[in-house]
Design goal:
The chain has 17 helices and no strands. It has 304 residues and is an all-alpha fold. The protein has 3 domains: 1-98, Alpha Horseshoe (Serine Threonine Protein Phosphatase 5, Tetratricopeptide repeat), CATH 1.25.40.10; 102-166, Serine Threonine Protein Phosphatase 5, Tetratricopeptide repeat, CATH 1.25.40; 167-275, no CATH class. It starts with a helix and ends with a helix.
């Protein structure tokens, strides 16, 4: 087991993947070690060698069917391969064994894709112990489920701990989605002083100001945004040299900037808040004896 621990230390501290691989394979050549098998699966996952990761993760599940870790790791691998059905079966088994916030998040993402919005919201709430956007995702799902009572309830919780979880712009978006435009405008105004002024959210801020009939502030924000876009367009040639962009990349960035400017000018015509309903997979380090993440779990596996 000394080699397994050294492999975990090398991977965490120095990123020595080839040496780590050799140490773990040497261990397996001498003994059938669940911890070594599991750590190999995790190693191959992190380096996107999924075929090899699957081999070892499936072995780990077979060797230790009563532990949540192998199921969680294998479920994450299936998510990365876009096999939501297999991922769901494994993640539900993992969550039944241990209510991991990371597993809850990944299950919530699957339920959201299945349009089971209330169920997804419940699991996003379970995830927010470690996943900063858990409550934001939960509120979005309650809105999609047309459950404004719970959307408002959890938005209040989110607001009380906003600095821990999300930024001002995201708070503005959530308030706009439930039709609370005054609160949305206040949060957007706070974010306007802190965030990069990108078209994706400034357009929503302008739309909210239009709903409130605050045309004076709308014009102030719009004009400042256009000035910023024009400045970026003017500096494109300089940036292109500094960052070594090719002609295609320069054209793409110019088109994006001009499109953002046009979107801002038309913001009052949009029908609703332009929210991002995309989902992302949560991941964690499952390496036993990792000096950064393990917290004694490797020792407990050996004791168990």
């Amino acid at each position: 087991m000394k080699r397994v621990k050294e492999a975990a230390r090398l991977l965490a501290k120095e990123g020595e993947s080839e040496q780590v691989k050799r140490l773990l394979l040497q261990t397996l050549s001498e003994e059938s070690s669940l911890v070594a098998i599991h750590n190999l699966a995790e190693l191959y996952k992190e380096y996107d060698e999924y075929d090899k990761a699957f081999i070892y993760a499936k072995q780990a599940v077979a060797m230790e069917p009563k532990s949540y870790y192998p199921y969680a790791l294998l479920g994450e691998l299936y998510l990365r391969k876009a096999d939501d059905y297999s991922a769901q079966q494994l993640l539900e088994k993992a969550y039944a064994l241990y209510e991991s916030p990371v597993v809850a998040h990944n299950l919530a993402c699957i339920y959201k894709k299945q349009q089971e919005f209330s169920k997804a919201a419940t699991y996003f709430i379970k995830s927010y112990e470690t996943e900063n956007y858990g409550l934001m995702n939960a509120v979005e799902c309650f809105v999609l489920a047309e459950d404004l009572h719970n959307a408002k309830k959890w938005l209040t919780v989110l607001e009380s701990e906003q600095e821990r979880f999300i930024g001002e712009v995201e708070m503005g978006e959530l308030y706009a989605r439930i039709g609370h435009f005054k609160e949305a405008a206040e949060w957007y105004a706070k974010g306007y002083m802190q965030y990069s002024h990108t078209g994706e959210w400034v357009v929503d801020y302008l739309w909210v100001l239009h709903q409130l009939g605050n045309e004076s502030q709308l014009n102030t924000v719009l004009n400042a945004f256009i000035v910023e876009i024009n400045r970026e367009l003017k500096e494109l040639p300089v940036d292109a040299v500094e960052f070594e962009w090719n002609a295609g990349e320069i054209e793409e960035k110019e088109l994006r900037l001009r499109a953002n400017m046009e979107r801002a000018r038309r913001a009052h015509r949009q029908l609703e808040i332009v929210s991002n309903n995309g989902i992302y997979m949560a991941s964690r380090c499952f390496t036993f004896f990792c000096p950064m993440h393990d917290q004694g779990l490797g020792e407990r596996e050996l004791d168990g």
